[in-house]
Write a structure and sequence with these properties.
The protein is α/β, with parallel strands linked by helices and 387 residues long. It contains 15 helices and ten strands. The strands form three sheets. It has a six-stranded parallel sheet with strand order 1-8-5-4-2-3. The protein has a two-stranded antiparallel sheet with strand order 6-7. The chain is globular.
C-alpha cells in the first residue's frame, strides 16, 4: 500500500428525523447564513424542518445557488457575510450547494483576487482563515457532505475548477435518507452514476497490494448495481434509500482513496463538458468514462478484468473480461437513464476535443491519470470517441 494520512473530522449524523438536532449542532449565539439552491426545499418540507430546528438563532438567508455553482453568485454571499459579520454557514442542499458554501467559507477572509482560489487551486489548511459551516444534505451524489473538496464554475470564462484543503471539512452533516422521496427521477439517476464513477476513479487504475481497499470499492460498486435501478423507481423504500445515501457518502469521503493510486481524468474532462454545454455532471462521467477505459485499455485491462470478475461475475481471458466489463458499465449507465454520447446531449459539439485540449494546454496540464500517461493526444482521442 502507498503511504497515507487519513483525516476526516466531520460529525456525520445519519437517519430519519435527525434535522431536529440542528439546534444542538450549530454553535450557540451564532449568526447563521442559511444557504440553499432552488425552491425544492420549500416543497418537500425541509426548509420548515430546518427553520423550526433553528428557532431562536439569528438567520440570514441566501438562496439561488445553481447546479454547478457559479463563482459570480457565490461572491454575492461572500459580501453578505462580510457586511453582516456572519460567523457560521449552514448549507441545505446537494453537492452544488455544499460545494458553493465551501468556496464561500474560503473566500470571506481571503486576501487578494478570490478567483485565484480556483485558478491556482489553493489549499486551505488554517481553520482561522475560513468561516465554519455545516450541511443538511438533500441530494446524495457527490460525497461533499463528508469531504473537503469542491468544484465551482466561473461563468465569465466557462471554467469549472476545484478547491479544497483540510480546513474545508463541514463541522457536521445531517443526512436523512427520506429526503430523496421528493427528488425527480433524473436527479436520482445522476446520483447513482455520480457515486459509481467516484468509486471507479479511485479503483480502476492498475493492480496493487491494497487488498482491503479494492474490496471496499467493489462492495460499493456492487451495492449501487444492485439497488440503483430500484431506488430510482422506489425512493420511498427506506432500505433502498438509506443504502444509496451511504454509498454516495462512502464513495468520496476519502476512505477508499487511501493507500491506492487514483485517476480523476474522467472528471477533469467531464467538467469541461458541463462548463461548455451544461450537461449534468453525472452524465458527462457516463459519456467519458467508458471511452477513457477503451483508449487506455492496455494500462487498465488488468484492473478492468478484476472489476469484471468481481463486480459483474464475468468469465474468460483477461482481454475478454476487460472488454466485456466496459460494455457492462455502458449497459448499466443506460439502465440508469444515461445517454452516453456527447451528440445525444448537445448539438454543435464537433470542435469539442480541440477546445478541451487547448484549455488543458493553457493550464499547463500535459498529462492526466494514475500514471500520468493520458496525454493531451489521448484526451483528444477520448473526447472524439465520445461524440
Amino acid at each position: 500500500m502507498l503511504n497515507f494520512e487519513l483525516y476526516n473530522p466531520v460529525n456525520y449524523i445519519f437517519g430519519q428525523g435527525q434535522i431536529q438536532k440542528l439546534s444542538e449542532l450549530v454553535p450557540q449565539n451564532a449568526k447563521v447564513l442559511l444557504a440553499y439552491g432552488g425552491g425544492s426545499l420549500f416543497k418537500n418540507g425541509i426548509y420548515e424542518q430546518v427553520t423550526t430546528a433553528l428557532k431562536g438563532f439569528e438567520i440570514v438567508e441566501f438562496g439561488g445557488i445553481e447546479p454547478n455553482p457559479r463563482y459570480e453568485t457565490l461572491m454575492k454571499a461572500v459580501e453578505i457575510i462580510r457586511e453582516q459579520k456572519i460567523d457560521f454557514i449552514l448549507a441545505v442542499g446537494g453537492g452544488s450547494v455544499i460545494d458553493g458554501v465551501k468556496f464561500i467559507s474560503a473566500a470571506v477572509l481571503f486576501e487578494g483576487d478570490t478567483a485565484d482560489i480556483l485558478r491556482k487551486r489553493i489549499l486551505f489548511k488554517d481553520l482561522s482563515q475560513v468561516i465554519p459551516f455545516g450541511t443538511v444534505l438533500t441530494l446524495p451524489a457527490t460525497g461533499s457532505e463528508m469531504n473537503s473538496g469542491a468544484v465551482v464554475t466561473i461563468e465569465a470564462t466557462h471554467e469549472k475548477l476545484t478547491l479544497g484543503g483540510s480546513a474545508l471539512f463541514p463541522k457536521f452533516s445531517v443526512v436523512d435518507p427520506t429526503v430523496i422521496q421528493s427528488l425527480p427521477k433524473r436527479q436520482l439517476q445522476n446520483g447513482v452514476v455520480d457515486a459509481f464513477t467516484h468509486v471507479m476513479e479511485q479503483y480502476l487504475t492498475y493492480k496493487h497490494d491494497a487488498i482491503l481497499q479494492d474490496r471496499l470499492a467493489e462492495s460499493i460498486l456492487q451495492t449501487l448495481v444492485e439497488i440503483g435501478p430500484s431506488v430510482v423507481e422506489n425512493p420511498t423504500d427506506y432500505k433502498l434509500a438509506s443504502n444509496f445515501v451511504w454509498c454516495a457518502t462512502m464513495a468520496l469521503n476519502g476512505l477508499i482513496q487511501k493507500g491506492v493510486p487514483s485517476d480523476w481524468a474522467t472528471h477533469m474532462i467531464g467538467h469541461e463538458l458541463t462548463a461548455l454545454y451544461e450537461i449534468d455532471h453525472a452524465r458527462t462521467l457516463a459519456i467519458i468514462g467508458p471511452n477513457l477505459y477503451t483508449v487506455m485499455f492496455d494500462t487498465k485491462k488488468d484492473k478492468l478484468a478484476q472489476y469484471g470478475q468481481r463486480v459483474w461475475q464475468l468469465e474468460g481471458s483477461t482481454d475478454e473480461i476487460a472488454r466485456q466489463a466496459i460494455q457492462k458499465t455502458v449497459d448499466f449507465f443506460h439502465t440508469m437513464g444515461m445517454k452516453t454520447k456527447i451528440s445525444e446531449n448537445t448539438d454543435n459539439y464537433q470542435d469539442t476535443a480541440n477546445f478541451i485540449v487547448d484549455r488543458f494546454e493553457e493550464r499547463g496540464w500535459k498529462a492526466l491519470g494514475e500514471k500520468q500517461n493520458i496525454t493531451l493526444e489521448k484526451v483528444r482521442e477520448i473526447v472524439e470517441m465520445s461524440y
